[in-house]
């Protein structure tokens, strides 16, 4: 276990099962810390199942993190929601299951954290002995508390405290609902502590007591265990889960500098508006008169050059009129109905999830031109056997991601016969179960950097792996 993050969950004093789960771990490349608390909803079995599905999805999707992080978190939460919804469609016993969660990704080297939130789990930031609530409760009582209409004490005792307005698993199309997932980012400075917790803690332990525990001496693990004990000492009415992350880098100390001394002011103060003193001599200075003959010579030369330029241009125009101009006729690309339909669907898509079914497209989808993706984030999922095949007369990329793209997922598609199957920029592309057949360059990546700036970093060349569990698409 690392010294700067810790997670713990407890069943509490009145429940028979624990519907909470959590994530407190580093990504596979050790560049980020994932801190997440998930609270299941929907009965004895359903809540646990929903929470476990969400946890598995988050760990899978965030094993490596690159590019724009906020769209990545939103897509991860949307995918978890979709998996929970699909799971309960086939099981009546789970039809009421759902979950709420707060997910934070912490970039310690760059002193920054990012978060995504749905429901009434919470995210707090401790800085300079002051505990700040970052997330907002998606409930009516939470709205009243956040807006100042209810005090913290009154909200904790409110009979409708746990009636939430948002959760994962009830609506399969949350990606089409703007602002369904609350997101944000903030500096995470040396000495700061992030607290992610379930309502089993905040329903019983107020902000003052949490602050005392977090500012007390002891390790991050000690503080997490004390928070659990505080909730259980007040009845432990619900499952209690806590994840803590500490930016344990030493704060920078800036040495004080003495103010610069004021330079001695000379006895004679110079007035900037005063006229300069002239040297002693006669009252008037003779001015040398210029000869006008040189000016006339210069004007004559300029007129001669202008006349010569005019005659030269006239002769060139005459020559161009006498020479026939050959216009090269560029062959017109004739696109097939399938690629026209798919490009039009991508261009007009309102959400960020596109399902491609083989029932809607003739297979294979032959490309005679590049499919362009310009969205900030997009999840393309194939249902059935979806193959993109290069037209014999076409030599360009199959799919091209523009510089606007930050997070594009291609899931369960195949490419056949392309010189470049996918052309992407920076780290926008994520592949899941994608097959490349007879492609010279499956993926071609261009990294875009600002002009004339010093660049540091590394390429994420190890992010892709061979998936031995999936069967190649024929």
Kindly describe this structure.
- The chain is α/β, with parallel strands linked by helices.
- It has 2 domains: 5-246, PPM-type phosphatase domain (Phosphatase 2c, domain 1); 337-451.
- 25% of the residues lie in helices and 26% in strands.
- The chain is built from 9 helices and 20 strands.
- It has helices at residues 43-61, 69-89, 140-146, 152-156, 199-202, 207-214, 220-233, 293-322, 337-348, and strands spanning 5-10, 20-26, 33-41, 98-107, 112-118, 122-127, 130-133, 182-187, 193-197, 240-246, 353-357, 365-367, 371-373, 377-390, 399-401, 407-416, 420-425, 429-432, 435-437, 441-446.
- Strands 11, 12, 14, 16, 18 and 19 form a 6-stranded parallel β-sheet that branches. Strands 1-10-9-6-7 form a 5-stranded antiparallel β-sheet. Strands 2-3-4-5-8 form a 5-stranded antiparallel β-sheet.
- A hairpin with a 6-residue loop joins strand 2 (20-26) and strand 3 (33-41).
- Helix 1 runs antiparallel to helix 2 (69-89) and helix 6 (207-214) packs antiparallel against helix 7 (220-233).
- The longest helix has 30 residues, at 293-322.
- 35% of the residues are buried.
- Residues 254-291 and 470-474 have low confidence and may be disordered.
């Amino acid at each position: 276990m690392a010294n700067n993050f810790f997670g713990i969950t407890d069943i509490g004093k009145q429940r028979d099962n624990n519907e909470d789960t959590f994530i407190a771990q580093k990504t596979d490349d050790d560049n980020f810390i994932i801190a997440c608390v998930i609270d299941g909803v929907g009965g004895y079995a359903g809540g646990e199942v929903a929470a476990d599905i969400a946890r598995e999805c988050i760990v899978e999707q965030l094993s490596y993190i690159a590019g724009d992080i906020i769209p990545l978190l939103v897509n991860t939460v949307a995918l978890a929601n979709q998996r929970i919804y699909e799971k309960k469609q086939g099981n009546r016993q789970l039809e009421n299951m759902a979950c709420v969660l707060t997910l934070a990704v912490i970039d310690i080297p760059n002193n920054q954290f990012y978060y995504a939130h749905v429901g009434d789990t919470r995210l707090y930031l401790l800085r300079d002995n002051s505990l700040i609530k970052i997330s907002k409760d998606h409930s009516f009582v939470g709205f009243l508390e956040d807006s100042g209409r209810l005090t913290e004490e009154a909200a904790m005792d409110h009979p409708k405290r746990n009636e939430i307005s948002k959760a994962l698993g009830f609506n399969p199309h949350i990606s089409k609902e703007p602002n369904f997932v609350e997101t944000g980012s903030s500096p995470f400075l040396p000495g700061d502590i992030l607290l992610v917790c379930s309502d089993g803690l905040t329903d019983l332990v107020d902000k003052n007591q949490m602050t005392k525990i977090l500012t007390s001496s002891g390790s991050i693990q000690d503080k997490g265990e004390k928070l659990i004990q505080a909730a259980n000492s007040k009845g432990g009415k619900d499952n209690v889960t806590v994840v803590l992350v500490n930016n344990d880098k030493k704060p920078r100390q800036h040495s004080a500098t003495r103010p610069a001394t004021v330079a001695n002011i000379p006895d004679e103060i110079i007035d900037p508006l005063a006229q300069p003193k002239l040297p002693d001599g006669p009252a008037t200075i003779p001015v040398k008169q210029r000869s006008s003959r040189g000016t006339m010579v210069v004007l004559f030369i300029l007129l001669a050059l202008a006349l010569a330029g005019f005659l030269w241009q006239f002769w060139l125009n005459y020559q161009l009129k006498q020479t026939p101009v050959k216009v090269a006729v560029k062959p017109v690309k004739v696109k097939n109905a399938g690629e026209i339909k798919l490009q039009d669907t991508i261009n007009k898509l309102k959400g960020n999830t596109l399902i491609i079914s083989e029932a809607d497209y003739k297979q294979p989808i032959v490309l005679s031109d590049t499919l362009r993706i310009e969205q900030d984030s997009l999840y393309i999922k194939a249902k059935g056997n979806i193959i993109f095949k290069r037209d014999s007369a076409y030599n360009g990329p199959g799919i091209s991601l523009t510089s606007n793209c930050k997070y594009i997922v291609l899931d369960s598609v195949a490419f056949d016969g392309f010189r470049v199957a996918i052309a992407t920029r920076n780290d926008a592309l994520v592949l899941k179960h994608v097959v490349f057949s007879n492609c010279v360059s499956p993926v071609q990546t261009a990294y875009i950097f600002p002009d004339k700036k010093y660049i540091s970093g590394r390429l994420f060349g190890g992010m892709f792996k061979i998936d031995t569990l999936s069967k190649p698409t024929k």
